[in-house]
């Protein structure tokens, strides 16, 4: 009995719910459609921006191609200088080490022979005075040992001999641990 | 079939439109909107790359238009003298003669060290750790003063082409030096690919000045 009286009410509730569902679906569809259209317009805008940048790039490239000769020469100069710098920064110190050592030999002592490479320098010295050679081994050698710029690892006096008119001294200067171990 | 579906249709017909709309919305989202988003982000990346390229091109154009053709010509001449594009025996000979004159030694003999005759080597023996090839020359000198051989070594390292003394052997009035003279062929692929041109750095200008000084003191 109670059910018969309430027969009309459920139909009203159902119609209202259906209206809400339809409205919601329209809103969802409309929003998705609108956002998608906006995305298409944005893409179109980005395409035109990209085309204009492309045109700008081509204009500048055309201007640069007019300076093609200068461009080539500048690139070559830069490339050469990079390589020259690499060479100069890594030069072997054979000449500089030999110069530094020989320049410290007192005037009374004659350099009669030199064998120099990047690992070892051998000096063959001659002097009529044994005192001069002695002073050399004491003072000058100490100076060499203290000079960290030269990078001498070891100094050896490999021979001392007497020739008819002079004393001969051979000194070895080692620059690498490899040369010292040999 | 129609009679079977009719009761379902009349019961659920009000739901058909919303379902269709929702399905179409999902279709638009997954088949249209999401691919469009991907395309937008790719396009943005392309635009960023183009903007960077334009900046680089503008700077290159600025550098090139501010340069002086005479200076570029002089600089190119100097760097080619310092690091020739191929083995240049005449330039090497000039360097030896000039160094011998300045150090007052007599140039007795010189010989070029060539590569191996037999077999192919993957790594050229005449190319050091710097990756730059060189021509090795054995130079025989004569002088009464041992110090002058060392002066010769110093002078030759200040000459053109750029060189490096490997070893010095002096015995009495005779001396032998082994010297590497550097050269480097052009790498045309690198030159062709390079779009960017930047001005010389301070250290590069300094090297250029030093090379000009060495060339001027000949």
Blueprint of the fold:
The complex is a heterodimer of chains A (182) and B (218).
Chain A: H1 2-5, H2 8-65, H3 68-89, H4 94-103, E1 110-116, E2 120-127, H5 130-146, E3 154-162, E4 167-174, H6 177-181
Antiparallel strand pairs in A: 1-2, 2-4, 3-4
Chain B: H1 2-65, H2 69-82, H3 89-103, E1 106-113, E2 134-142, H4 146-157, E3 163-171, E4 174-182, H5 188-193, H6 202-216
Antiparallel strand pairs in B: 1-2, 2-4, 3-4
Characteristics:
heterodimer; A: 182 residues; alpha+beta; 6 helices; 4 strands; B: 218 residues; Alpha-Beta Plaits; rod-shaped
Question: Could you please describe the fold and organization of this structure?
Answer:
The complex is a heterodimer of chains A (182) and B (218). Chain A is of the alpha+beta class and 182 residues long. Chain A folds into 2 domains: 64 residues; 88 residues, Gyrase A, domain 2 (2-Layer Sandwich), CATH 3.30.1360. Chain A contains 6 helices and 4 strands. A 4-stranded antiparallel beta sheet of chain A has the order 1-2-4-3. Chain B is α+β, with helices and mostly antiparallel strands and 218 residues long. Chain B folds into 2 domains: 53 residues; 140 residues, Alpha-Beta Plaits. In chain B, 58% of the residues lie in helices and 16% in strands. Chain B has 6 helices and 4 strands, in the order H-H-H-E-E-H-E-E-H-H. Chain B has a 4-stranded antiparallel beta sheet, covered by helices on one side. In chain B, strand 3 and strand 4 form a beta hairpin. In chain B, helix 2 packs across helix 6. The radius of gyration of chain B is 36 Å and the shape is rod-shaped. Chain B starts with a helix and ends with a helix. At the A-B interface, helix 2, helix 3, helix 4 and strand 1 of A face helix 1, helix 2, helix 4, strand 3 and helix 6 of B. Strand 1 of chain A pairs antiparallel with strand 3 of chain B, so a sheet runs across the interface.
